[in-house]
Write a structure and sequence with these properties.
Length: 253
Amino acid sequence: MSIFQAWFTVQSIRFRTRALKALLRDQRAEFGVIRRHIRRGDLVCDIGAYKGSFIYWLSTWVGDGRVVAFEPQPDLARALADVCGVIGLRNVKVEAKAVYSRSGDQELFLPTGHRPGASLHRQAAGREGLTTLSVPVVSLDEYFDQNDRVRLFKIDVEGAELEVLKGAERILRQHAPLLLFECENRHLASGSVTDVFSWLGRLGYRGSFVCRKRILPISEFDAAVHQRADGEWFWKSRDYCNNFVFRKGGSGS
């Protein structure tokens, strides 16, 4: 198959369409922060890549750098690796693993018919229609070498954010990557999103949050307002905010 033909397969078109929607509509503010931060030659990491809406742009922007994408659902990981190969994203490595505070194996909880909600924490995956799958897990401090200067962690792990970060403490202290992560009280079995903010604060990180496609200081975040659980689909409200940007010693913007 030629490169021209590869770009016009159904798989390729869906992948690139998803990437365009993320860039121009769904995560426009988040991509703006990323684009200002990363450079050609950088090493970046997508944790919870799902169907890869971030991967295309990360691959393009780092050029001869590297993108490591973790996706624990085996079929999704295979699909990502296949499409990256088809359209020539040779700087992307897809790992069919989950990320956590320790390495080994762990149960992944999969909501039936709602695979974006897959989580290592039962609370985050919901209570009905769950299936489980044993998956390999890895801590980022163990996965990356001491000399791997990671510039970005994009994290979407449905309630396991703090465990992922704890497993990357060496990297956070040593290389201070930009952090873009989703975090919601509804996914946490105990504690709150502010526990994540406080833990990062002790490492010298300062944050912001995304609200109506604007980047606002974390001091203005109020979970009672910005993650108010009113109505059946409350997380789809335009005022519901679950994306955060943290950087070492800065405002996060």
